[in-house]
Amino acid sequence: MSSLPQTGATDAIAPASNDEQYRWLTELIFDSKELDKLGGMVSEFNLFEAMGMVRQEIRHSHFLGTLFNPREPHGLGSRFFESLLSRLLYDLPDRRSGEVSLLDIDLCDYDDLQVFREQDRIDLLLVSEQNRQVFVIENKIDAGEHGNQLERYEQSVHRRYPEYRKVFVFLTLDGSEASRDGWLNLSYAQVIECLSELVTDYGHQIPPSARIGIEHYITLFKRYFMEDTEIAELCRRIYKKHQKALDLIFEHTSQQANRKQGQQQWLNDLLAPYLAEHQWVEDISTSTSARYAYLPWDRREPEMQSSTWTKSGRVLLFEFHFNSADIRLTLKIGPSALKHFRKQLFNHVIDNEKWTRIYGRKSSLTNSTTTIYSCKLLNFNERDSMDEDRFCADLHKPISDFFSQDWPVIRDVLSPFLVEASETSLSSL
To answer: Model-level pTM greater than 0.90?
Structure first.
């Protein structure tokens, strides 16, 4: 038997009593001066937050692309582009990247700079024809690199602009290193620092509406992503003072999020054999949705890669959605630049008798995402406190039923339109 005092060992790991936890929370609530200050700082209206673009990579790329374009009415001309690239090149040992040097940025005129979004799936492609220069920017907010995408972008740019001098930039929240040599690592902190200085130095030249937009963008990043700000310092002070109460809050609020994340991973593992058998591949997923595509449908180009819905550009995706009530499998048509094709796809489904047998709900085509199939896999009260074994056991049958019953109908109805007609020219639409 151990000679250690048993009461001391027990006290060291004993959980706090309800009274102690109540006292921690009460102190947090009534010592509210700093909390009120923090609430005022983060509750101030922000245009980009209101649009839901805090972590939406595509919208960040759109906004940065607008600021890079010298012909947009933001009053900065090409200064944002020149200032940001100068900062990047200045920190390099020889102050150059490939064939473009810091001196080139200083001496060249970039008033002809063209900004392309999603050309060859590249986030931002900046081209100066008069200077024979190309700048590739791959933007990452939360997602990491996918496969050999950087190498594919290099090949695409070399093929499209063989005689141009090129710079490749990997933009992330923290300046993470790209997997490929020759890519410059850029952080959003550098972007925000650059914008802040431009507003200070050239604010008198920026139209009021554009200045408000830029200042809101700067505030968004200081609020959510940057550590060396007044908001971050205030958060640290509050946490240090009320650590026990805040840890208690985090413990109870994070349990549901962690459970949902775990269940999404269990679902991915459960689906693995079905994906291989039925030629499904994972698309871009979110914290609440796991998305998949049927590979043969990708043959219908360019129509099936014309969407701005996800980074893949796919128009048609299966989505396993985790919400507060259930887990549901849907098939959705996303937004597309090719409206005629999208309408044909929708009409092909709703006019089919076989389809109405598996999904009889009336639906209409919207400008955003349109659900053309849906089935409930699991109710919330069935999955709330499940362990992995029970979760997978309860999901196995509905998923198996889907792939044996509804999926053959979906595949057989859509494939003649998407696969067998894949050689049809868009001009015939």
So the answer is: no
